[in-house]
Structures are given as C-alpha cells and as structure tokens.
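Database export, one record per block. Field names are fixed; values are copied verbatim from the stored entry.
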Amino acid sequence: MSAAAAREKKLTSETPHSEPLSAAVAPAPVRRSDAFDDMHDSDEELDRYQALALPLTLCRRIGKEFDSADGRAIRYQKMHRWLTHGAALSATVAVVTAVIALGYYPIGVMSPLAPKWLPSRRSMSVIEIWFAGAAIAIVLAGYFSRVKERWLLSRHQAESYRLLRYAFLIHPSVWRGSEQSSGEWIDHRLQAIDGTELAGAVREPAPHGPFEGTQMRLPRGVLRALTEYYLSRRLNPQKEYLANRTQRNEFSDWVRVYLPWFFFFSIVAVFCKFFVHNLRWEGFLALLAALLPAAAAGVRTWRGAFEFSRNKGRFEAAHQALRDLERRLVNEGFSAVEAQQVSAVGSPSAAPPDTDAYSILRDLSWCEHILETEHREWLRLMFETEWFG
C-alpha cells in the first residue's frame, strides 16, 4: 500500500461519519441547468456533519433572508430579460420595416421593382408604427420602473447572504464561542446587508486578502468535517455553476464572431451597387446595405445588456482559480496537517486531539475571497452596462 493510500485510509477511519476527501470533491449532481442549493441543509446532512451542528443550525436564519432576496432577484431578472428582448426585437423590426418601405415605396405607391410578396404600403406603415410604439413603450417602462437596478440590488443582497453564511462557517473562532454571541454576530451583519444601497455596493472596494481569523487550533474531527462540508457544499457547486454559465454563453459568443461581417457585407453591397446596371439588383443591394447594420445593431443591443463575452471570460478565470485551490486543499491541506502531526508526535495514535488549522482555514478564506471578488466584478460590470442602446 502506498503512503498516500495509507494516509487516506487513516483519515477515513478517524471519524465515524466521514468519507475520503477525494469522495468529497466528486462532482455534485445539479438539480437544474445551473441551479444548486448551498444555503439549506437536509436532516441527513445535519446528521452527517454532527461536528458542525451548532453553526449549521445558526445559519438557518441566513438562509431565510437569502430565500427572500433570491426570489426578488429571479423575478426582477426575468422582467429585465423580457424588457431587453422586447426592446431589441421591436426596435429592429421597426427600423427594418422602415428601410424596406423607403426602398420600395419612394413616392407612396408600390414600385414595379418590389417583390410581389411584399405587403402593401398601408400594411407596412401599420407594422412600423406598432413596433416603433412598442419599442418606445418598453424603453420607457424599463427606465421608469428601474427593473435593472432592482434586479442588481436583490442579487447583490442574495449573494451577500451566501457569502455571510460561509464567512461564518470558515471562522470557527466566531461560532465556537457562546450561541448568543454567534447569533449577535449574524444579526449585526444581516442588518448591514438589509440596508445595502446599490450605488454604495458598486463603489465599495474589492475585499482585501483573508488575513484574519485563521490562526487557531481545532479538534481534528471538526476540522475534517468543515473541510469536507466546504468542498462538497460550496466549492464543487460553485465550480459547476461557473462551468455551466460558460457553456450557456456559447451561442451568444458564436453570434458575436459573425457580427463584424454584417457591417463588412453592407459595405460590400454599397461597393457592388456601382457596378450593377439592373434597377432591381441596385435596389436590392441598397436595401441590403441598410438592413445588415440594423440587424447587427439589434443583436448587439441584446448581447450588450448582459455582457455575455466579458462574463464568460470572468467565469473561466474564477473557475480555474477555484480548481487550483481545490487541488491544494485536497492534496496539501489536510494531508500536510496530518504529516506535521505524525512528525511532531511520532505516531498517529499519540497525536493530540487539536491541530493547527491555519493552512486549511487560510485556503478556505481565499476561496471566499475569490468568490466575493468575482461577484463584485460582475456587479460593477452589469451596473455600468446600458440595457438599451
């Protein structure tokens, strides 16, 4: 048996409800496309992590606040998405219809060069006015209702509750005290999140490095349970989420590659128009030169409201950083602590019940640091993005 296998067997036999750390980092099942629940614990999970029963119970009040903020964020996000799609589609159809009508109805009557399937001038005018009016109404509704700002604020509050939950768990110095002091610590931060304003959250600087609350000793069983819990309930779901979000943006990025060609071919159409001596083809090329930029502008409006490409790059970077930290936690974290214990005492059976938790708590804190920084970057990017235009 190799040294690594022997160490894994020894770690497994130390706590009755534990599993190998390699099992803890197995990909967690995703209930929906990118949905996961890392804010609530079932009774089975509470039984499995008995060493964390008190902090997990205290975290339930954070979960209730998260549910409320997350529900608002989902509702406002759907409204924002419908407004953006409606505005981009209505404006594009109105402009395209106006360009076609201008090309084939220069004097208000049907041109002999117009295709036979083209609607009448009256029908074209009805389409223009309806879609232009719809675009104006949607833009005004989005501006005065401030749906985007409400969505961003609710999402920021929900993510702040999520960050608070795991900041509480990875600082045992807080929850290993009295239950009353732990509850007061949570209540104080819940009130701060509840009073958050979007403008202030956007201007708030990026969090500094996690240099606080990691210098302490913990019982070996508690440290192991905390590490396994974080890997299976926090780190793996976040990696799955980032990977899924990257894949979901593939279509919009595929469209982005071809958008510059819309403008290029519109210029080509203008150039070719001077070498064509057929009136029908001249009219077609002129329309094509006007329609391609209008269609590209509509797609850019839709994409720009959600910043797909920039978010994809950020998701990939955060995923890579979390994967590196996960590897260090699994291969160097608890194993290094065990090796130090054996080296200091001489045999595993004589090891003291407490161990230095600094290296593991430091890496857990860095994971939270990366996730909070990623969220704040997303918030600033989306706050500065024009949802229409």
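Remark 1: Confidence is low (pLDDT under 50) at residues 1-34.
Remark 2: The first helix runs from residue 3 to 12.
End of record.
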